[in-house]
Write a sequence for this structure.
């Protein structure tokens, strides 16, 4: 599948409740709204395009099968990220953790950007990807959820199943380790 970028909007809870009643249109709308972010998040964890695709599809299959179990006390996005995170970790455990693959999702640069700038951007992106890949899974997931996916601390802590304090600790340790790893690559963490 080609996961187009889309921003979530209001009404997700009502859509999940409709999915619980078998509404395929509501299901398709939730996939359209949330699959791009879920896929991007999963891709950062499993680092394999085929596995990311499989985990994303499995996440939305679980949405279809378990919509009736959804508790409206959590945001739908938080619930979906938690499902995706658990499935991605299961995938890593099943195959054993492997080295990061190049990110095929990188957007092409405009033609006006010099080749030197492009090379530098690519090197920085690869250094960041390698540094994130070298972090413990929970630190990498915390940084990805908060900084790359834009989840709040409360949402990220719920996805990871940790307290807000534990999330802050994961973020702090992850940022320190990321800075150290990037310094080894000759880069500065932003």
């Amino acid at each position: 599948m080609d996961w187009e970028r889309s921003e979530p909007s209001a009404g997700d809870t009502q859509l999940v409740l409709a999915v619980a009643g078998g509404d395929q249109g509501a299901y398709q709308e939730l996939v359209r709204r949330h699959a791009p972010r879920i896929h991007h998040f999963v891709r950062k964890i499993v680092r394999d395009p085929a596995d990311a695709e499989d985990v994303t599809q499995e996440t939305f299959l679980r949405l279809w099968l378990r919509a009736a179990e959804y508790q409206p006390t959590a945001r739908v996005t938080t619930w979906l990220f938690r499902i995706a995170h658990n499935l991605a970790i299961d995938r890593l455990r099943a195959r054993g953790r492997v080295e990061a693959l190049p990110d095929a999702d990188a957007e092409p640069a405009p033609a006006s950007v010099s080749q030197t700038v492009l090379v530098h951007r690519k090197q920085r992106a690869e250094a960041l990807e390698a540094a994130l890949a070298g972090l413990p899974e929970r630190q990498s997931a915390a940084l990805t959820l908060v900084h790359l996916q834009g989840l709040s601390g409360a949402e990220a802590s719920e996805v990871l199943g940790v307290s807000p304090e534990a999330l802050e600790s994961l973020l702090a340790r992850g940022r320190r380790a990321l800075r150290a790893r990037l310094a080894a690559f000759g880069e500065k963490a932003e």
About this structure: Residues 64 and 91 are 20 Å apart (CA to CA). Confidence is low (pLDDT under 50) at residues 1-10, 97-106. The helical segments are 12-20, 24-46, 49-66, 76-95, 115-134, 137-148, 153-160, 164-184.
